[in-house]
Amino acid sequence: GSGLWQCNFIQPSFLVSSEEIYRRVTMPPKKGKEGTKGQKQIVEENQDTLKFYRMMVLGANGIFIAVTLIFFDLFSFFNIAMLVMTSLTYFACLYFMSYMAKATFNEKNQVIDSGVDLNMEGGIAEHVKDMMILTSGSQLLSLLSNYFWLLMLLAPGRGMWFLWKNILSPYFFQAAPEQPEVDEKKQKKLERKMRRAQH
């Protein structure tokens, strides 16, 4: 293809194409706020996100089951209990994300409501995705040592921190409402009026 330079090898996907480099160099960066996403774009990105996490879940569970069957005892109580726990966690997270991202269409198959943007920074979906990443990481690392299951304790720990930071701490340590400062002149006028009213 045409570009700034020619290469006779296949370019890895992580390298930027020469056309992309040219576009970045010749086009100035956009000023101001980033444009908002359209409903259709949110729906497509949500579908891609859900697909990615489904594949991650299938991969983590598949690798765990295969390696445990070959090298360990899959049917021990501990391994079954942990497989059930991780599977329930995955199911709950995926179901919750699917529910949040449920889009509404009209009869012409046009998007009326895109649902919640799963890729929004600071949203609850971010915490759900973190839970799935933690679960799959713990599950795969547990193939090296069962002590890696202890990483799962980070989830309730983070939940408690989130609860403390966003709900409990502001409630317990909220500042007392400030008394409005009364202007001295107004205060003296008010006192004079009160004295006149008493006489």
From TrEMBL:
<dbReference type="GO" id="GO:0005789">
    <property type="term" value="C:endoplasmic reticulum membrane"/>
</dbReference>
<comment type="similarity">
    <text>Belongs to the TMEM208 family.</text>
</comment>
<feature type="transmembrane region" description="Helical">
    <location>
        <begin position="140"/>
        <end position="164"/>
    </location>
</feature>
<protein>
    <recommendedName>
        <fullName>Transmembrane protein 208</fullName>
    </recommendedName>
</protein>
<keyword id="KW-0472">Membrane</keyword>
<feature type="transmembrane region" description="Helical">
    <location>
        <begin position="78"/>
        <end position="98"/>
    </location>
</feature>
<dbReference type="Pfam" id="PF05620">
    <property type="entry name" value="TMEM208_SND2"/>
</dbReference>
<feature type="region of interest" description="Disordered">
    <location>
        <begin position="180"/>
        <end position="199"/>
    </location>
</feature>
<feature type="compositionally biased region" description="Basic residues">
    <location>
        <begin position="187"/>
        <end position="199"/>
    </location>
</feature>
<feature type="transmembrane region" description="Helical">
    <location>
        <begin position="52"/>
        <end position="72"/>
    </location>
</feature>
<dbReference type="GO" id="GO:0006624">
    <property type="term" value="P:vacuolar protein processing"/>
</dbReference>
<dbReference type="GO" id="GO:0005773">
    <property type="term" value="C:vacuole"/>
</dbReference>
<keyword id="KW-0812">Transmembrane</keyword>
<keyword id="KW-0256">Endoplasmic reticulum</keyword>
<dbReference type="InterPro" id="IPR008506">
    <property type="entry name" value="SND2/TMEM208"/>
</dbReference>
<keyword id="KW-1133">Transmembrane helix</keyword>
